[in-house]
Amino acid sequence: MIDKKIIVVATANRGKAEEIKKIFSDSAFEPKFLFDFPEQTKELMIVENAKSFEGNALIKAIVVGDLLNMITLADDSGLCVDALAGRPGVYSARYSQEGTDQTNYLKVLKEMKDVPMEERGCQYNCTVAVYDPRTKFVDTVEGIWEGRVSLEPRGDKSFGYAPIVLAADFNYEKTNAEFDPEYLININHRGKAFRQAIEVLKDYLKKKA
After folding, report:
1. Which of 82, 100, 102, 165 has the most CB atoms at less than 10 Å from its CB?
2. What are 78-117's pLDDT values in tens digits?
3. Is position 76 annotated as part of the catalytic site?
4. Among positive and negative, which fits the CA dihedral 168, 170, 171, 177?
């Protein structure tokens, strides 16, 4: 059995970590997460103050990569709603005052209560930054997933805005939270972005060897 190369993914979100583990399962890399380094990261503070997904992903990757001195991937993801001029966007995780998954998506539904279904288009965006603190190599990739905002939340199989997003892949018939997450990572924004990041890592390490 070939030993996998350990890399860090700069997230402490366990739901996201489980998805990412599955994406990497057939790769040459083994992802570790912030909760795998409790002592080193116990005082870690990351200020995500960029105005783009790419900017925030770069901030996280560089801060964590420099701290742990390991190749680090970081993503910034969010839901961009056409009728809300792209909101919540980079503020997706903290869109409501409470900042929970439920209060965030309920705020979106409230703001869209008068928007007809044909005008409820949205896109999930996931941008992943790849960073090697030893060489200062950096690159970013992006995954986009099209959908529509539902009229009401449905499903409990996923997190974030999943209960209110109807994927175009399924003719807008079910929310993402009504599907098994293991299936969705084959087609969703996070799966698309991290699979591209794996290819970036492979090419980088091959050239570096």
Report:
1. 165
2. 999 999 999 999 999 999 999 899 999 999 999 999 999 9
3. yes
4. negative
